[in-house]
Write a structure and sequence with these properties.
The chain has about 325 residues and is mainly alpha-helical. Helix content is about 80%, strand content about 0%. It has helices at about 1-25, 25-30, 35-45, 50-65, 70-85, 95-115, 120-145, 150-170, 170-190, 195-200, 215-225, 235-265, 270-280, 280-300, 305, 310-314. α7 (about 120-145) runs antiparallel to α8. The protein is globular, with a radius of gyration of 22 Å.
Length: about 325
């Protein structure tokens, strides 16, 4: 009886979250990342098989009642949940689980877009139009708010370059967005199921997480590739790889900041202020990325010393 009640509660929650996220423009940004949470929690509590059954039922409901567009939109979240279910209990590190799931979602999203638009050039043409319209709407809002005319003129002049840059780094933006959604859901699962940490991923204390050391060579190679002449496919791929790797070093640096906030017992208000500055102020964002990168040599949390046995320390 309890499992049936939980099943229908998760079913209704998933449908409401997804429809609200699609229908409500501003609130949707906050609700969309939470769409997988009810199914993940249900599957973790009552078994992954039951969770997969819930995924299938929701997908079918969206397909028959909302159309294939709505069903394909939910399919990305269903795929994310399914891939996370496959990773649970395998002893994978959190970076392997997150990267593997995000890669699967990116491949599926590319397939869905290809299905709808048929070619890359057609997709770019439509995205260019959408971005141009959204930029014009944003400029009108800035004008009403009271931004100076000179700043708005500069933005209008640089609009084509901004749009082209967004199109070039769109794969990286999509991948990072998927990573963010996955991490948000894992965070809530960690808080809701403290006894299931070992099942979710082999992490230990998340504040002691660090990016894999070989990743620095990928950063170096992709960084040097940015200095190649022209805007060929190789340079576009290098730029996307560079941005994705920089995000992982940002998360590495964020773990260092959280580590010292925890050990120094920094008040919650100051932590929240610092995190807001890190997210919204470019200087602090770059500083955190650098913190994560140079931790490879600086070992700011002294984790390497902690891993040594007593004879090695002496």
């Amino acid at each position: 009886m309890e499992v049936i009640k939980s099943f229908f509660l998760a079913l209704v929650s998933t449908i409401l979250l997804f429809l609200s996220g699609v229908a409500v423009p501003l609130v949707g940004v906050l609700l969309i990342p939470l769409v997988p949470q009810p199914t993940l929690a249900f599957g973790l509590k009552w078994g992954k098989g039951n969770g997969m059954g819930l995924l299938l039922l929701v997908t079918l409901l969206f397909f028959f009642l909302g159309g294939k567009e709505l069903a394909l939109g939910y399919f990305l979240f269903a795929l994310m949940v399914a891939l996370l279910f496959l990773s649970f209990g395998r002893g994978w590190s959190i970076e392997h689980a997150v990267v593997g799931t995000a890669t699967g979602m990116l491949a599926a999203a590319s397939g869905v877009l290809w299905y709808f638009f048929g070619s890359l050039s057609q997709l770019q043409r439509i995205l260019r139009t959408v971005l141009r319209e959204n930029l014009e709407i944003s400029l009108k809002v800035y004008e009403k708010v009271g931004f100076s005319g000179e700043s708005l003129d500069v933005l209008r002049e640089s609009a084509p370059q901004i749009i082209e840059m967004i199109l070039r780094i769109l794969p990286a933006l999509a991948f990072v967005g998927f990573v963010a959604v996955i991490l948000i859901n894992l965070f809530f699962l960690y808080r809701r199921f403290p006894d299931h940490h070992a099942l979710l991923a082999s992490t230990g204390d998340i504040r002691e997480w660090k990016s894999p050391e070989p990743l620095v060579w990928c950063l170096i190679v992709s960084g040097f590739s940015l200095f190649l002449p022209g805007w060929g496919v190789t340079k576009a791929l290098a730029l996307n790889f560079f941005l994705v790797i920089a995000v992982f070093y940002f998360l590495h640096g964020l773990a260092i900041v959280a580590y010292y906030f925890h050990h120094k017992k920094v008040p919650l208000f100051l932590r929240s202020l610092a995190y807001a500055l890190i997210v919204f102020e470019q200087f602090f964002t770059i500083f955190v990325v650098g913190l994560g990168l140079f931790d490879l040599w600086g070992d700011f949390r002294r984790l390497k010393k902690k891993d040594l046995n007593p004879s090695q320390v002496s």
